[in-house]
Design goal:
Blueprint: H1 24-43, H2 47-62, H3 66-71, E1 77-78, E2 85-89, E3 95-99, H4 102-117, H5 139-152, H6 163-175, H7 180-187, H8 192-196, H9 199-202, H10 204-211
Antiparallel strand pairs: 1-2, 2-3
Length: 215
């Protein structure tokens, strides 16, 4: 009997489900935990919880990949009086501009003032999420700190730092009235099909239809 050939890897589409995204209550718990730790860090002159607070806010407000977060420099943030965006060097060395809202813009400015208080550089070529020596922080370190934060927030251990990007995508799709093209540009997806993978999670009308099935 002739065996069927195995499907090629590039033909296997990854699946997005709700377990990979934070819900509203989980986001609130995460933010509250980070904000409390940030206050303690400022009081006790410890930079790590301050940076980690901003790391979480960056992930939730810009949906960046971990490597993109680690590579950001101060020159990549455009937050003057009239503009609010982040210039990101993504996969394949492709640049994109990620728009940010007024609330996160204020958090960026607040973070800058915190960094100055700790004596870190705000020069254009300095890293945004720097390590304690002022240099570039590693992806592994960001992942490790995320796990520590999630544990302190008493949130499920299965979440990885990439869930911030998933969470941002699902909430942005809803907020944009399912403008997949806009969300694709914000996330830097090479294909809109990748963005559309999130459809099953966020389309509220579809959820209503499921609830009303056979009724």
């Amino acid at each position: 009997m002739k065996k069927e050939p195995l499907p090629k890897a590039h033909n296997i589409q990854w699946v997005m489900d709700e377990r990979k995204c934070l819900n509203t209550i989980e986001i609130q718990k995460l933010r509250k935990t980070c904000a409390t730790a940030k206050v303690c860090g400022l009081r006790c002159a410890k930079f790590t919880p301050v940076r980690n607070w901003f790391m979480i806010e960056l992930g939730l407000n810009a949906g960046l990949r971990v490597e993109e977060m680690a590579s950001l420099k101060h020159s990549d943030l455009i937050i003057d009086s009239d503009r609010s965006s982040i210039v990101v060097l993504g996969k394949g060395n492709k640049k994109r501009a990620v728009w940010i809202n007024a609330d996160f813009k204020r958090k960026c400015q607040l973070y800058f003032s915190y960094k100055e208080r700790f004596g870190y550089s705000l020069e254009e070529d300095s890293y945004l999420l720097n390590n304690l020596n002022g240099g570039k922080i590693s992806k592994r370190a960001l992942q490790k700190f995320f796990k520590i934060i999630m544990s302190k927030a008493e949130l499920p251990a299965h979440f990885h730092i990439h869930c911030l990007r998933h969470t941002y995508t699902t909430f942005l799709l809803t907020a944009s009235n399912f403008n997949y093209r806009f969300v694709q540009q914000q996330l830097g997806h090479s294909s809109i099909k990748t963005t559309q993978v999130y459809a099953g999670i966020v389309e509220s009308e579809g959820k209503k239809a499921i609830e009303n099935l056979y009724q």
